[in-house]
């Protein structure tokens, strides 16, 4: 079955999806548009809500990064069977997205003063607020958000990498359990080989 992932040539919302696909050994076409040329109007018009990522499988398409990650996590054995545990992971993923929402505003903002103010807020308040909580949650569960490795772990790693790229930081340095999870996910079979050959992202 032909699988395709459409995004720009950055980690952003797509990297955790790429990781899950590589981890589960799925062959897929990783279609990446040059972000410096975005918006490409004909592509934007073709996307269901004008935004990436878009996942295609067997001629059907799915938008929203969380829905794509959750769907792929079934084949990758990254979703627990218990409905309550699934919902807990959904809540975690949405909290990670809540953290990211301010970074997304920073990326879109053009005014330099406003950008500087958002950056300050993210670096001085938001990272600590969210990541002290993620750290606590991971510690409680032996280094994972659920009872074992799950898609929420991949989502966190993807957003840490994207935030690091955006602000040229290594935010995990302040959070040892988050750091350990990143090292673990980056060393997983499939993910490790992918990282070794992926291009360096530049914003
Ligand atoms: N909630 C959506 C957000 C999608 C989103 O913001 N995509 C950005 C890239 S990270 C985008 O396509 N931006 C280009 C645009 O809006 O024109 C998701 O998680 O997939």
From TrEMBL:
A single GO BP: glutathione metabolic process
Keyword Protein biosynthesis: no
Reactions it catalyzes: RX + glutathione = an S-substituted glutathione + a halide anion + H(+)
Enzyme class, first EC level, given as a word: transferase
SUPFAM superfamilies per the UniProt record, alphabetical: GST C-terminal domain-like (SSF47616), Thioredoxin-like (SSF52833)
Matching PROSITE patterns: GST_CTER, GST_NTER
Name of a matching Pfam family: GST_N
Entry keywords, A to Z: Transferase
Domain of life: Eukaryota
Domain GST N-terminal intervals: 1-80
GO MF entry, a single one: glutathione transferase activity
EC annotation from Swiss-Prot or TrEMBL: 2.5.1.18
PANTHER family attached to this UniProt entry: GLUTATHIONE S-TRANSFERASE, HEMATOPOIETIC PROSTAGLANDIN D SYNTHASE
Subunit structure and binding partners: Homodimer.
Family: Belongs to the GST superfamily. Sigma family.
Protein name: glutathione transferase
Taxonomic source organism: Leptosia nina
